[in-house]
């Protein structure tokens, strides 16, 4: 932001509308020098900018109305400030006071009026309050004393060892902390207003429950941190375990096992060897008893079918042999003992039936004759069948599964013997083997312990979360008893959380800002001070803003122990540090800054401070402060110069371009 023009009318010695331009250099920077003797209106110039931006009490305005105009009954005072914003837009702020048609105006008759024009468009009256807030946020009133200051302000800071402490609120405004403090206070106020609805709940009840909830949440936070630590340790042991396993595999070409697992494998190998010997014994016994019969086991089903077929064939032959007798017996059965037909057959029909039955029996089975392979009698066939049943029910057919089991046991023993190669190791291999085994077992033990510890922590965390939930429900029920909604309770809780975060943020912000402030202050002090080589550091307390100056030996130097010039140099350095730390691109306006300084310090201020004070610097000076020599030193850097000329006879101040001796 840069000031482009200031107009003052009917204020102190500025009887008529007086326009003071602020030229800008080609590089966008500006150092504008305004000369004025004592009483010429330099203080009125500073006040006009402050009153135009922020307004003033009617009494202050009335008291400083131009005497000649006040005698005429003219109580109209106005200030107009034209600014170029950081986005290159133009903002015009015009503030005026008028008594209207009052014949003998008094302070109470003055009415203030604010007009805002942005980029040529006048802001509506309804938005004036919003624009006033905008001006205050853009140029906070609490910090203008660090951007618009005079020799008296420098002297006030310089003369008091504890001036910074007394300026704490203003310093925090310059550092950007004041508004966050105000926000935290507003949140606390809102919370207190919301709490007013809890008429029937005592503060002790609420504080007790909230304290209990806070303690449980604190416990939960600690347990969560402890759990995270155990998880990290567990992951570390697992990684160490995995690394040892990989080294074992690379060295021995086998998967690592614990000593217990190896003992278990040896037990399995011995058990498998014993079972193998038992299986081999059973196989030998079976081979001795029933192996010959077992060789024909696959033929048993065929023998059974052949015996059955030959039996059926023998039955058919017997039927053919006795066909005649059978036919007669069948015919007799037709009528005896109970007739099949209602009418008794005649003798001829009975004879015909007997002939047919005879032929049928005589023909037999149409399949033809069966070859007599075995040709066993019924008794021999029964003995053969019985023997086959006995063989099938015996253990002879267990031979195949026993052989399969033997093969599996041999494979298992070989595999277990391959895992137990430790006995065939060299001494160095055995040493490495034992080292890796011990490392893996140690990691395994720690993993087990940490896993159990993690399990217990998880249970404690779940228990704490459950307890917190119960307390929150109890608190909610307390609120519900007094007709307070859940949203309202949550809002109060959020206010607490936000206030806590803001307080933490304020502490960190203040620490960072103060650290930056002391660096910038010390940088400028070294440029301006004639004793900079004696000063080692400037330290500012981030809580109290107390300033400590230490020499090369680490001894503290009281500000009161400095010379008058050194004090003022320190004050100017602090003001410059505040401007840098605030990061606000505001114009710097300095009124009579060199009046109490010696030549050395004046040289440093002119050559090192003015060119670096800011992007726009306005210097108000008498002819003895910025004299011809200093003017020549500054001229190359000036964007312009002007003079406030005071006519004592007319008590009138006018502005003209050119410094004192420039006409």
Tell me the total number of β-strands: 15
C-alpha termini separation: 31 Å
> What is the spatial order of strands in the main beta sheet?
2-1-4-5-6-7
> Gyration radius, to the nearest Å?
58 Å
Uncertain stretches of 5 or more adjacent residues: none
The helix fraction, in percent, is 55-70%
Query: What structural class do you assign from the helix and strand content?
Result: alpha/beta
Q: How confident is the prediction overall: mean pLDDT? A: 80
Summed up, the helix count is 20
β-strand amount:
5-15%
Largest sheet: 6 strands, antiparallel
Give the overall form.
elongated
Describe the structure.
With 663 residues, the protein is an alpha/beta fold. The protein has a domain at 271-419. It has helices at residues 42-54, 58-63, 67-71, 128-138, 151-159, 163-166, 168-174, 178-195, 203-252, 259-295, 300-321, 323-335, 347-363, 378-393, 399-419, 427-481, 486-528, 564-582, 599-609, 628-635, and strands at residues 2-9, 18-21, 30-36, 77-84, 90-98, 111-118, 121-122, 148-150, 535-540, 547-551, 556-557, 588-591, 616-621, 640-647, 652-657. A 6-stranded antiparallel beta sheet has the order 2-1-4-5-6-7, with helices on one face. It is elongated and about 180 Å long. The two termini are 31 Å apart. The mean pLDDT is 80.
């Amino acid at each position: 932001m840069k000031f482009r023009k200031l107009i003052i009318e009917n204020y102190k010695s500025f009887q008529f509308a007086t326009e003071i331009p602020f030229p800008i250099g080609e590089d966008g920077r500006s150092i504008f020098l305004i000369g004025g003797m004592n009483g010429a209106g330099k203080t009125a110039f500073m006040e006009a900018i402050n009153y135009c931006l922020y307004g003033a009490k009617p009494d202050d305005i009335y008291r400083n109305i131009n005497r000649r105009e006040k005698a005429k009954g003219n109580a109209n005072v106005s200030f107009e400030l034209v600014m170029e914003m950081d986005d290159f837009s133009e903002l015009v702020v015009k503030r005026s006071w008028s008594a209207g048609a009052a014949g003998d105006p008094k302070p109470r008759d003055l009415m203030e009026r604010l007009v805002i024009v942005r980029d040529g468009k006048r802001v509506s009256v309804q938005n004036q309050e919003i624009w006033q807030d905008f001006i205050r946020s853009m140029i906070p009133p609490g910090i203008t004393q660090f951007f618009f200051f005079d020799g008296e302000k420098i002297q006030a800071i310089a003369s008091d060892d504890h001036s910074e402490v007394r300026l704490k609120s203003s310093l925090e405004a310059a550092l950007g902390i004041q508004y966050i403090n105000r926000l935290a206070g507003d949140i606390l106020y809102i919370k207190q207003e919301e709490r007013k609805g809890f008429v029937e709940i005592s503060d002790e009840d609420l504080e007790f429950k909230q304290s209990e909830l806070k303690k449980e949440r604190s416990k939960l936070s600690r347990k969560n941190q402890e759990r995270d630590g155990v998880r990290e340790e567990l992951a570390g042991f697992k990684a160490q375990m995995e690394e040892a396993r990989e080294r074992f595999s690379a060295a021995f070409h086998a998967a690592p096992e614990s000593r217990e697992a190896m003992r278990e494998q040896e037990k399995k190998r011995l058990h498998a060897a014993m079972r193998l010997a038992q299986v081999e014994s059973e196989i030998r016994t079976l081979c001795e008893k029933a192996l010959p019969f077992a060789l024909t086991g696959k033929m048993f089903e065929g023998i059974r079918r052949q015996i059955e077929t030959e039996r059926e064939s023998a039955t058919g032959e017997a039927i053919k042999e006795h066909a005649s007798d059978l036919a007669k017996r069948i015919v007799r059965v037709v009528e005896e003992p109970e007739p099949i037909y209602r009418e008794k057959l005649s003798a001829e029909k009975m004879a015909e039936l007997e002939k047919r039955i005879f032929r049928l029996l005589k023909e037999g089975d149409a399949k033809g004759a069966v070859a007599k392979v075995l040709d066993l009698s019924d008794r021999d066939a029964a003995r053969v069948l019985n023997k086959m049943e006995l063989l099938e029910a015996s253990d002879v057919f267990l031979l195949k599964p026993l052989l399969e089991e033997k093969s599996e046991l041999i494979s298992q023993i070989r595999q277990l013997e391959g895992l137990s190669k430790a006995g065939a190791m060299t001494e160095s291999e055995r040493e490495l083997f034992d080292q890796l085994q011990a490392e893996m077992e140690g990691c395994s033990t720690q993993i087990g312990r940490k896993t159990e510890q993690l399990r217990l922590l998880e249970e404690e965390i779940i228990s704490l979360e459950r307890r917190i939930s119960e307390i929150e429900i109890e608190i909610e029920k307390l609120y519900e008893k007094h007709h307070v909604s859940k949203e309202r309770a949550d809002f109060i809780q959020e206010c607490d959380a936000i206030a806590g975060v803001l307080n933490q943020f304020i502490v960190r912000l203040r620490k960072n800002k103060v650290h930056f402030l002391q660096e910038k202050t010390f940088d400028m002090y070294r440029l301006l001070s004639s004793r900079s080589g004696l000063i080692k550091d400037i330290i500012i307390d981030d809580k109290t803003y107390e300033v400590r100056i230490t020499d090369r030996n680490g001894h503290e130097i009281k500000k009161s122990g400095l010379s008058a010039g050194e004090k003022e140099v320190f004050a100017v350095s602090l003001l410059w540090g505040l401007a840098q730390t605030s990061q606000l691109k505001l114009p710097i306006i300095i009124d009579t800054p060199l009046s109490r300084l010696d030549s050395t310090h004046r040289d440093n201020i002119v050559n090192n401070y003015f060119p670096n004070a800011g992007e726009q610097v306005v210097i108000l000076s008498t002819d003895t402060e910025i004299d011809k020599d200093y003017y020549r030193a500054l001229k190359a850097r000036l964007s312009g110069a002007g003079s406030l000329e005071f006519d004592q006879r007319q008590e009138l101040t006018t502005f003209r371009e050119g410094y004192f001796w420039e006409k």
